[in-house]
Design brief:
CATH topology of the largest domain: Globin-like
Largest sheet: 6 strands, antiparallel
CATH architecture of the largest domain: Orthogonal Bundle
Strand order of the largest sheet: 4-3-6-1-2-5
Strand content: 15-25%
CATH superfamily of the largest domain: Globins
Length: 403
Amino acid sequence: MSRQLSEGALGVVKATIPVIEAHGLAITQRMYQRMFADPAIRALFNHSHQGDGGAQPRALAAAVLAYAQNIDNLGALSGAVERIAQRHAGLNILPEHYPAVAEALLGAIKDVLGEAATPGILAAWGEAYWLLADILIAREAAIYERHAAAPGGWTGWRDFLVVEKRRESDVVTSFVLKPADGGAVLRHRPGQHLTFALDLPGRPGLRRNYSVSSAPADDHYRISVKREPQGAASNWLHDEAKVGTTLRTAVPAGEFVAPETLERPLVLVSGGVGVTPLLSMLAAVGPSPVHPVHFVHAALSGATHALGAEARALAASSGGAVKVTTFYEAPRATDVRGEAYDETGRVTADWLAAHTPLSAADYYLCGPRPFLRAIAQALRELGVPSSQIRYEFFGPTDELLVA
């Protein structure tokens, strides 16, 4: 690491913690406004996260505050740094992009705080920014180098062809992708996602992340995409993409991944399209896992339930080591309990306490934000250590889910 934070800057950053607590969100909102005025920088981002009720600025404000609070103990932020680096690697963020972010951040501090943003404060936060930037740049370089050297790996964007398109439910469609160059692919770690660069009619430069929903393979990936009512990318994929369509993607990325070896029972809990990375994990544990695996999925009904038959087939081939339980909140008259689903209603703390190993297990959660908050809180109240609760949702990371 080429930079070190000076003692003076360290003191200033710590002294500004109350200011960040009070004005952090306004600063990050202004920061994004400044960055997105540059079309080249704007094109680097997944803007579906920007529209989620301001979730991305809120997540960044929380991250900036956590950074200030731990500026003299950065080891406490290693998990957050890895998440950021993995996201950046998926978006092909490069060292030359960092100065624009620095300019936007310092400019936003000045815009929001006015005369209170003294030259000393701006200089200290400039030092702090580049300290973190150097850490991220080094980690991202290591990720890119590993990807390039791995069998089937690549850097930048690579063209893939849709070789199969399959409707999984009323709202989810799967796409099987193979490289246009006919080569091998980097085997993803179960739970990782692909980042796509989409140039749609009237909407060039879209970036979207979709989890790989299949087991690791050497020649293809599969994504399973939910149609969102206002989703430009998801609607285009459902309506326009077909066998033979070319899609550009970066290498698999993300740190929400299944353990390489099962040290204890594994419980996979998903809601809605959150099933996709967890199904990849389930497929990867193999037919005879050394510990029991519980696959718990919640859907509205059979109309929206995707990939259920595949999960049940994996369980059937496991010799009893894998148990699948499906909840339907509002089953249709045609949904047969005991076949399509097992329980009516929502996943509850009482059910988890009665049917899963709790503190003896590792829990992996994926789904909508309210679903994750409810399940994570229930597990904590039932005594599951936070170190045994991993989670992912499709948007900016909320570090407070299991805090």
